[in-house]
Amino acid sequence: MTCDEYQEQVSQYIDGELDDKDSGTLFRHLSTCGECRSFLRSTLELRSKIHDEMLMERELQAQATQPSSFTTSFTLPLVALLVAFFLFLGVSQLSSPYQSDYHEMQQWEGQALQQTGNSVSQ
Amino acid sequence: MQPSSDEQLVVRLKAGDAEAFGELYERYRPRVYRFAFKLLRDGDQAEDIVQETFLKAQRSIHTLHQNHSLVSWLLSITRNEVYGQLRKTRSNGQVDVEDVWDTETPLDEVLGTETVVIVQNMIAQLKPGYREVILLREYEHLSYADIARVTQDTESAVKARLFKARKALVKKLKPYFGEQS
Questions:
Q1: What does the mean pLDDT of chain A come to?
Q2: Chosen from A6, A14, A15, A39 to mutate, greatest number of chain B CBs within 10 A
Q3: Chain B closest-CA separation from residue A14 CA (Å)
Q4: Which of B137, B169, B180 is facing A41, going by the closest CB pair?
Q5: What chain B residue is nearest to A6 in terms of C-alpha separation?
Q6: Chain B nearest-CA residue for A37
């Protein structure tokens, strides 16, 4: 077999389309032939670069489907602020009955003190 | 709801389930677009091919045999559409040409400095017949049998074309690869 034929087998080997018997013969040849070894390395490197490109493509697609960093950085604090505001409003409303009781109690205390003062002076 | 497997999807498609066509589109649109775009190198034309592919798929779903994969069937429709487009716009849309490189894009025109970009550009400069086998194998991970179905060729022809394309690419790209002995 010529190196060109072995290199065609390298191409099939990396695709998982070469049977075990032919793979054995190929590896015996690769152990003695630098040119075919170099072809195997370069073909694997080509595949790895294509793989890198696909990863880059996927990242770009993922970025395109996500909201932009401006939107994220602007909307998230705004939402947090609104949530905090409504929480505060809710807490204020919840606490308001107690506050009115407190005012009533203050008024009652004032009146009581006034009455006590009046009775002492009399 | 669990997404349908391809087999379940085909059953629903053949029953004329309109929802299933929507699922088919969502699932395979990116792959159909990528294949068309990388063969044509034109985003607008690739978009047209995507629409045409899914319309044809809907009309001819009954021609999909049970033992054929859905993706290779879709890509074979895409390929036919792309070649139809190439025949309209280019002189060398044929696959049976000896030279691996496309003469319509000069080889010196290698854009970018990153190896990944250079590889992408080199693949784009292969003749469509060689480019398609690289795309179907490296990007779509189709078996030789499925590539042969898509390209309407024999497995041995696919094997030979893949080897020829890889050899040409490796030769051009060697200066950009880290060479070890």
A1: 74
A2: A15
A3: 11
A4: B180
A5: B163
A6: B181
ipTM for the predicted complex:
0.79
C-alpha separations of B171 from A93, B52, B77, B175, B179 in Å:
77, 37, 32, 8, 12
Give alpha helix (H) positions in chain A: 3-14, 20-30, 34-65, 69-121
* A88-119 CB burial, b ≥16 within 10 A, e <16: eeeeeeeeeeeeeeeeeeeeeeeeeeeeeeee
**What's the token pair of residue B13?**
């498609």
**A46/B170 touch (CB, cutoff 8 Å), yes or no:** yes
Query: Hey, which residues does B32 pair with through a beta bridge?
Result: none
* pLDDT tens-digit readout, B144-169: 999 999 999 999 999 999 999 999 99
- Residue pair A40/A30 in contact (Cβ under 8 Å)? The answer is yes
- Residue located via tokens 């009955």: A97
Query: For A68, which DSSP code?
Result: P
Token couple for B64: 């999909």
Write down all domains in chain B, each with its CATH number in brackets: 1-95 (1.10.1740.10), 96-181 (1.10.10.10)
Question: B159 and A46: CB-CB below 8 Å?
Answer: no
Q: Interface of chain B against chain A, CB under 8 Å?
A: 30, 34, 115-116, 119-120, 123, 137-139, 143-144, 159-160, 162-163, 166-167, 169-170, 173-174, 177-181
Q: Which residues have CB under 8 Å from A55's CB, separation 6+?
A: none
B60 Cα to chain A: minimum distance (Å)? 30
Q: Which pLDDT value is given to residue A122?
A: 46
Measured between beta carbons, the chain B residues lying within 8 angstroms of A59 are none
Q: How confident is the model over A11-32, as a mean pLDDT?
A: 95
Give pLDDT tens digits for B67-88: 789 999 999 999 999 999 888 8
Question: How far does CA B157 lie from the centroid of its chain?
Answer: 16
Gyration radius from chain B CA atoms = 18
